[in-house]
Amino acid sequence: MMTAAKPGQFNPYGALPIPKLTPELIGLVKTGTVYSLSVVWNEGIPVPTPMVPYTLSPRLRHGDLPDIAPASAAAELVTMAAHTGTHIDALCHIGEIQDADGNASVDGEVKLYAGENRFVNAAEQVGYQGQKHLSIADMPPIITRGILVDVAGYKGVDVHHGITHLENLYLEELAAKQVYEFLLIVTPLRLQGATGSWVHPIAIA
């Protein structure tokens, strides 16, 4: 099992290396145009059936705290599942039922990725504070070359290599402007024990 990251520290995470901005990545930036790849979270946003819906409720309104006058503050309470809107999955989000020989099976125990050809029992890796193994808190930021192709489909490979993925990206503007290569930056929140994180990815072309 991989060691959990500490504040201010990044470790490799599955197939993700420790991020580093290299001259090659900087060379992807031609015009400096920044594209937002995130959807907008709002009440009514589609969520998977088992997940709780997105809600936003005012908690403090301007004028509610007279003791801080002449300053004023407002704040709200947001509830939503980690897998809502544009988000990235932690490696502990998806498991696989395997038989005693490590083959995919409908009978057996659920296993989680723990490195190349290594797995751990999912039932042993969760507690009342969430996931203990490869939660989203352990995922480093992603700074990499982004391209608009189905890499897995093109190479004909299977999700057993410690590869995480982003969901619900807004790609229409990139496609409309034929931006097929760009610098991609994704920074998940360090939510200890969570199986995913909301993100606001950006593409810099």
Protein model, in words:
This protein is mostly beta strands and 205 residues long. The chain has two domains: 23-41 and 82-204, no CATH class; 43-79, no CATH class. The chain is 7% helix and 25% strand. It has helices at 23-26, 151-155, 172-176; strands at residues 34-36, 55-60, 75-79, 87-89, 96-98, 109-113, 119-121, 126-127, 130-131, 142-147, 166-167, 181-186, 196-198, 202-204. The strands form five sheets. A four-stranded antiparallel β-sheet has the order 1-14-12-10, with no helix packed on it. The chain has a three-stranded antiparallel β-sheet with strand order 11-4-13, with no helix packed on it. Strands 5-6-7 form a three-stranded antiparallel β-sheet, with no helix packed on it. The longest helix is centred in the C-terminal third of the chain and has 5 residues, at 151-155. The chain starts with 22 loop residues before the first helix and ends with a strand.
